[in-house]
Structures are given as C-alpha cells and as structure tokens.
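Sanity check

After download, print the first record. It should look like this:
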Amino acid sequence: MGNLYLTYREGFPKDLKSPFLENCDGSFVTYGELEEQSSEYANGFYDLGLQPGDRVSVQVDKSPEVIFIYLACLRSNLIFHPLNTAYKEAELSFFLDDAEPSIFICKKEIYNNISSLDLKKTPQNIFTLEFDEDTSIQHIKKKGEHKVMDCSSEHTAALLYSSGTTGKPKGIMLTHGNIGSNAQALKEAWNFTQEDCLLHALPIYHVHGLFVALGCVFLSGSRILWMNAFNVDEVQEAIPKCSVMMGVPTYYTRLLSNPKLNHDTAANMRVFISGSAPLLEDTFNEFHSKTGHYILERYGMTETNIICSNPIEGKRKPSTVGLPLEDQDIRIVDDHLNNLNMNEIGNIQVKGPNVFKGYWNLPQKTKEDLSDDNFFNTGDKGFLDQDGYLTIVGRSKDMIISGGLNVYPKEIESLIDDLEGVGESAVIGVKDDDLGEKVVAIVVRKEKSEASEEELISALKNNIAGFKVPKKIFFVEELPRNAMGKVQKNVLRDNYQ
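Expected structure tokens:
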C-alpha cells in the first residue's frame, strides 16, 4: 500500500496523546486528535459521494483544520488542491475551471459571491471553514472508524499550480510517493527526532509549509509551535521554545532587525532552515554573527519538492544550496544536453522519486520539461563545485521570487499591456533587502497617453494578488531589444537595479 497517510502514520508517536501542535494561546492538538479529525472528514467525504481522484480545492486562512482536511484527502485518495489566499477573482476562476473540484472550501465572502467568479462549472459542494455557520465544512464530519484507502504511490495526492513564462498557470501533480519519499529524505538529512519542536510561521498553501515542514514533523513524531502568520516580534518570542525554524529569507532579514535576537535567545535552536528564494551571503554572515548559527539553505521547487540541502553536520557554504538529497541525481548540461564539467555553468536537471508525475491535462508540456531519460529541466542555471555543492546563478525562465512567493513576469505583463494607455511593458525583479526581490515594471505608453504610475498600480491591485503588483513603474520611450527583437531583460535589470 502506497498511501501517504500511512507513511506519515508510521512516524506518529506510540502515545497518541502526545502533542502534535501547540497554538499561540497555549492550546494543543494531539496526534490522536489528528487521526480522529481526519477520519471524521474522510467519512464525510465518502458520504458526499466523492470518488478517488476527485479534487478538493481549499482557499482559506491558515488553520489546523486545513491539516485535518489535507490528511482526510490522503486517507480517501482524493487530490488536495490548496490555493494562495491572496488570489483575486480572475485568478481563482481559472484555477477552479481548470481543476474542476468536487468540493471548494473558501472564505465566507467568496462563498457569498460565488456567482461573480463566472465559473464554467460550479463545484457541486461549496463550504466555508467558519465555525458555527450553516455553510461550514465541519458539518460533514462523521464519527466512526475510517479505513484508509488502498492506493499506489503513483496516485496523485496533491495539485499545486505554478505559472510558466507564457503566464498561463500549470497544474503540478505530486504523487503520494513524490511527497512521502522527499519527506523521508529530509527527515534523515535534517536529523528530525521526536524531541524537536518546529516553529511554523509559513503559509500552508505551497510545498514549503505544507509538505516540507509537516512531513518532517509527521515522520519524526515531533511537534509544531503554530503561528497563523509571520510576525517578527511573535516569532522572536517563540524562538527560545523551539529547536527548528523553517522560513524564507525575508523572515531572517526581518529577524536581524529585532534587538532581542542574539546568542542567548537562539541557544535552544538546533537549526534555522531557509528556502523558497535565494539567501544573500550578507544575511548568512550577519545571522551567524548575531546568533552563532549558520542558516542552512536548501533548494527545491513545486515540481520536485526539495532537491538538495546544505548539511546538518559539515560545511554550510554561503551562496550554495548544498548537496543532492538521497536517491536524487543532479546534472548540469548545455542546451544540447551535453554534460558539463565541474564549475561550468549550465542548465540544472534533476531525477529522482521526488520529481512530479506531470502537468494536469498538459501531456505535451510534461513531455517538453522531461528528458528522454526522465530528468526534469528546472529552468535554473548553475554549477557543481569540487565538493558536489550546487550553486544557482540565475533563472532562465526569468521568474521573480518576492518574499518567498513566485511571480511570473509574463502574467503581469499581459495584464499591464491590456490597461488603457499602455503600449507594452516588461516586468523584472530587482534586489530588495526585505523581500529578496521586488517586482518592477518598465512601461511604454501609447502615443498621447498620460497614464500614471498610480493609475496603473491601482488597476492591477483590483485584479491580482498584492505580492504580484509592481512596487515601482518606470516609463520609457522604448524597451531595449536584441537583434532578434527580444526584450533584453538583463539590460533592464542592470539599469533599474
């Protein structure tokens, strides 16, 4: 049996009264409650008539209840489909039309205005997560034993969306085996034990907070100190109570500005882990100076989970993302798929049980991104050094990572180009001490247009998530192009850095 829930379940402590999660108010969720609640939701899904492979789309604020629902989906061999809470109506409409979920769990305001999404096919079951509301998903729960659904490790467990350079989001199918094998490799690589306490301030709608963080805890039977969002003062207060923290680089830059962060307050910490965006060497060095800890940087993406990591024991090299995890092969190739030598920059490809099953309803795109010998082309460029450590030097797909969240320029450019008075645009990421990168747009106005920065930003805010909206717009007469007519974004990045 390859069901991911059973993989997780093997790591639970023998005493199910052991705490799994501690809320900031001091209340606990035990491993027994985790099993009981997920079982009740799974029974409810069965009574609604859901079948293996049906999608359960979730766009709600961070809550332990989402973990119960996620595990219930695994138990039932349903496909869990988490959505960023910042997505606006147009974005949400696309995801729901593409995934065609049997259940959509959303905020009350979305529930009340579902018709405004103008969906091709409205989900049969729509619920909120509000307590004591008639619309709540909690009403479907049914007590009683639930037998975990037998399934293969190749069955799809989760569907997460990531845009490409065309701007059209792609559904990434992650199997029970993809997620489970990666969680096991990370638990071993990062030495998780039942004695650990993970500080969890990450969102749980993407790989980092959902699969990486929770997987390590489930498999080790350890516990979580749960925070609904990242607040620098609250996180600083929680650090002495924990042994592991996972975060994006922005978390660490903000912590460095807190006067309470020092060697003493970080003394109980075993390891600080960073991912989802590049960690600056200045941050790495300053954090060590202030706390005595070298941040452990690792590298992954939605299609692959985590690919490699700096070691727990051994040298953590700044500006590198470490060594390949167990059972993963990394190779650096040129554009003709020839293997490159040590320290030669090329395209990063990876192969292993962590690599996704394919793109949802896009078999041709899946074929394009996987080589004949099943290596996935990450779209990143980098090199391997003499010790086997991987360094990433750039992203061939021009993706921007702002505050740990992916922003795809083509998507933003398409929206800007449709605004009144705009001729064309180019969107780039520029270095930012807080976010890692911030989104900047360079715009060519149409003749006689007087479109302003304020007007364009205001229009964008109504249609896309806030993290995608440009922080600054520059107006130019024309965009720089090469001989083939392609916009030279490297020139723009140099000019506006």
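If your output differs, re-run the checksum step. Summary of this record's structure: The longest strand covers residues 422-432.
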